[in-house]
Specification:
It is a single chain. With 412 residues, this protein is of the alpha+beta class. The protein has 11 helices and 20 strands. It has a 7-stranded antiparallel β-sheet with strand order 1-6-5-13-4-3-2. Strand 5 and strand 6 form a beta hairpin. The termini are far apart.
Length: 412
C-alpha cells in the first residue's frame, strides 16, 4: 500500500507531476494520473474511511485503495498552474519542495501537426511526465510542460440530440473537470498549503482502447448530509431520469469505433435526458464497435453484475448514495473478427454480431464500483442515519441492468 508517511522519506525533491486522467468519462471531481497504474483524486474523509473499511466481499468490485499523497499547487512566472505530488512532503505544508524544482503543467493545450487529420487522439507526451524532479538534474527544472497530441485515435462528443458538431481529439470531460478543479484551487492560491489526494488503482491501464460506461446507481443520489436545497435538486434529477424508473442512469461513456478508429463520447447531460428505451439503446451502442455488436461481451459482463448483485444483497445497512459503477472492456477487436470484416465490402457488416472463435474464452471485462463520498453504513463515523437491510435502490438498478443486457439482441 502506498501511504504518504511510508514512502520515499528521503529526498523531498522526488516529486511527481500529476497529469489529467484522459479516460475520465464522468463525475465532477478531477481525476489525475499519478503513474501508469495509479490515479488520484482530492481526498474526502468519508470516502477515505469507506475505502479503508471495505468488506472483503466488495473489494473485488472496487479499485484497489493505495493510500494518500501530498499535493501542492504551484504557479510559474507565466501563470501556468501545476499540481505536484510527493509522498515525502511534511503533513503541514509543502514549502520544503523548492520552487526552482517545481514542474509546471500548462493549462494551454498545444496541438502538434500530424500526418492524418482523420486520426487524432490525445496522448500525453511521455518523456516530460515520466521524469521526476530529481531526474531533471540540478538547475534544469522543467518550468513548463505542454500537453502534446500524437496520431492515434480521435473521439467524437455527441450532444444531447445525438449530433456531432465537431471532432474532438480527446475525451473532453476529464479536461473539463481538471480546468474547474484548478480554477477552484487557484482562487485562493497558497503555495505552502498541503492538499491530500486519494491514490487508487487505474482500472483501465491494462486496456489498449478502454471502452468505459459510467453508471450512476440507485434511485436516490443525495447523501444524508445534503442540504434541503441539494436534496430537492437531486430528487428532481432522479424523478426526471432513468434513475427513478430504472435505478440507473448514464453519467458518461466512451466507446471505441473500430470502423473509424475513433472514440465516441457522451456525457452526463446526455444520460439525464434518456428515456428507458433510450437507455437500452445507449447500452446497445456501448457494445457496438461500429462494425458489429460485441455479443461476446454480454456473458462476462452479466456474470460479473450478478456476482456483484449477490454481494450487495448481503450488505446490511450499506447505502451507496451517489456512487457510480464502471463497466470496462477493450475496444480492440478480436483478430478473427477484423480479418473477417476486412474481407468484405465496407458497410455490409454494420448489423452483424461479433463472435469469438470456439475455445478462445471470454474477453476481459471489468465491473467496478467508484465514488463513495456519500456512502454510509452502520459503524461509519460519518453516518447520520443507520439503515436496515441492503440498498434496495442499488439492487433495483443492478437487476434492471442485468435484465436489459440479457435481453440485448441485434436490432432490439
Amino acid at each position: 500500500m502506498v501511504v504518504q508517511n511510508k514512502l520515499d522519506t528521503g529526498d523531498p525533491r522526488k516529486a511527481v507531476l500529476l497529469e489529467p486522467f484522459i479516460h475520465q468519462v464522468g463525475g465532477h471531481m478531477s481525476m489525475m494520473k499519478y503513474d501508469e497504474h495509479t490515479v488520484c483524486k482530492p481526498l474526502i474523509s468519508q470516502e477515505q474511511w469507506f475505502y479503508e473499511s471495505l468488506p472483503t466481499a466488495i473489494k473485488q468490485f472496487t479499485p484497489q485503495y493505495k493510500g494518500i499523497i501530498s499535493v501542492c499547487l504551484r504557479k510559474d512566472s507565466l501563470g501556468n498552474l501545476g499540481l505536484i505530488a510527493s509522498p515525502s512532503l511534511p503533513t503541514d505544508n509543502c514549502s520544503s519542495l523548492d520552487k526552482e524544482h517545481s514542474v509546471m503543467l500548462c493549462q494551454e493545450i498545444k496541438w502538434t501537426s500530424t500526418t492524418s487529420s482523420e486520426r487524432l487522439f490525445v496522448k500525453w507526451s511521455q518523456a516530460p511526465f515520466t521524469k521526476t524532479i530529481k531526474d531533471s538534474g540540478p538547475g534544469k527544472a522543467l518550468l513548463r510542460t505542454e500537453l502534446q497530441y500524437h496520431t492515434d485515435v480521435s473521439s467524437l462528443m455527441e450532444d444531447t440530440n445525438g449530433n456531432q458538431p465537431e471532432r474532438k481529439s480527446y475525451n473532453p470531460w476529464g479536461l473539463h473537470c481538471h480546468q474547474l478543479h484548478l480554477n477552484r484551487m487557484s482562487s485562493k492560491l497558497d503555495e505552502n498549503k498541503l492538499h491530500q489526494f486519494l491514490l487508487l488503482e487505474n482500472v483501465v491501464s491494462k486496456y489498449q482502447y478502454p471502452c468505459i460506461l459510467d453508471l450512476k446507481m440507485g434511485t436516490r443520489q443525495h447523501g444524508d448530509d445534503a442540504s434541503e436545497e441539494k436534496k430537492a435538486r437531486h430528487i428532481m434529477k432522479c424523478e426526471q431520469s432513468t434513475s427513478g424508473s430504472l435505478g440507473v442512469r448514464i453519467c458518461g461513456m466512451q466507446v471505441y469505433q473500430a470502423d473509424t478508429g475513433q472514440f465516441l463520447c457522451k456525457d452526463k447531460y446526455y444520460g439525464r435526458k434518456l428515456s428507458p428505451d433510450g437507455f437500452r439503446q445507449a447500452l446497445y451502442q456501448f457494445l457496438h464497435n461500429g462494425n458489429c455488436l460485441r455479443t461476446d461481451l454480454l456473458a462476462p459482463i452479466v456474470s460479473q453484475l450478478k456476482a456483484l448483485l449477490s454481494v450487495i444483497k448481503k450488505q446490511s445497512s450499506y447505502r451507496f448514495y451517489s456512487s457510480s459503477l464502471l463497466i470496462i472492456y477493450d475496444g480492440q477487436e478480436p483478430k478473427e473478427n477484423k480479418e473477417t470484416l476486412d474481407n468484405h465490402p465496407q458497410g455490409c457488416f454494420q448489423n452483424i454480431n461479433c463472435t469469438m472463435p470456439h475455445g478462445t474464452g471470454h474477453p476481459k471485462v471489468d465491473v467496478r464500483m467508484i465514488d463513495f463520498a456519500h456512502a454510509t453504513y452502520k459503524g461509519s463515523k460519518y453516518n447520520h442515519t443507520i439503515y436496515d437491510g441492503p440498498d434496495h435502490g442499488y439492487i433495483f438498478g443492478l437487476e434492471n441492468l442485468v435484465n436489459i443486457l440479457e435481453n440485448t439482441r441485434e436490432g432490439e
